[in-house]
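WSC domain-containing protein structure dump, as promised
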Amino acid sequence: MRSFLIALTSVCIFIQGPLKVLANPFFLPQNLASRQSSTIKQSISFTVDCFRDFGPRILAFRFDVPGGNSAERCTALCHSHGYGLAGLEYGSECWCDNYMPYGQLMSDSDCSFTCPGDSTELCGAGNRMVVYQDSAATPPSPNICITWRDSSSFINNVLQAIPKSGSGPVTKLYAIPTNPFTDPIYYTIISTCPAGCPYTDYYNFGLYGNVIQSYNSVPYPPNVGDSQAFTSQSSVVGYAGFCPKPSPLSSNPFIGYPLLSVSGHTDLWSLCTNITAGGRQDIVYSPVANHPHYTESACQDVWIQMAPYS
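C-alpha cells r here:
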C-alpha cells in the first residue's frame, strides 16, 4: 500500500473579493511549542494545511480508524478507499474525499488536538481539519458533476463571475427582479447590483439536487442569447440541469470553489452590459448578435464560481 508522503506547498483558493494565494505557514508558534511536543505530521504526501470546517463538511466521508486516529492511519485508510484527500479533525475523526469545494485556511496552531493513535501528532480540533493530499492520486475531471456529496452541500451559495481571460475583478452576482415583487408572479435574473441598487441582500442561490433556486424562485431552462431567468410561479417545474463541477482555476486540482454548470456547460456564461437597464451587467447564456439588450462584442466571457454563503 502506498503511503502518503508530505511536501510543503501553496494552495490557490478563490474567496469573495480579489483572488489570493494562501501560503502554508508550517510552524508552531513559540508559546504553543513550549507547551507541547505534538506537531502536524510533515512526512506524508503533502499537507494542504489546517482548514476551518463548517456547515456541510469540507470533506464528505467519515471513517473509523482501527487502533486510534493518526496521520498515517487516516491517509492509508482514505487511500485504500480510492480517495485523494484525507482529513483529521477533533482528534479522533478521519474524513476522506476526492474534492474539497470550500474551506477557510487557518493557522497551524488552530489544529491543536493530539492524535489518539500517535501522541506526537496533531489531528485537527473542533471544526478544524488538517488535510492531506495523496500525490499519487488522480484529481477529478473538471468536466464531471460533483454528485457524490449529500444534498445539503450546496444549498447556500454566493455566485461570482470570474473573467475567463484571467484578468479583471471577481464580480458578485445577485438575483435582480425584472418586475415588481408585488405582482402575483415575479421574475428574476442573475445579474449585478450597481451603485444605488436596492437588492444588495439578494445573493443567496441554493442548489437543491440539480435545480438552482433564487429566493423561492425556480429556473427556466437556459435560452441561448438571454439571461438566466427564474420564476415564482408555483406551477413551473424548475429546470434540473444544473450542477457544480471541480474548478480548473485553482493551482490545486483537488481544491477550489466549484463552477456552476448548466446543460453540461460551465463555459457558455458571459457578463453583458444591458443597454436598456442603465448599463447594468447581466449574466447571459451564450450571447448572440443583434440582441436588443446588449452588444455581443462587448460581452465578457466568464466562469460562474460557487462560493459558500455567509
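The helical segments are 30-33, 71-80.
lmk if u need the other ones
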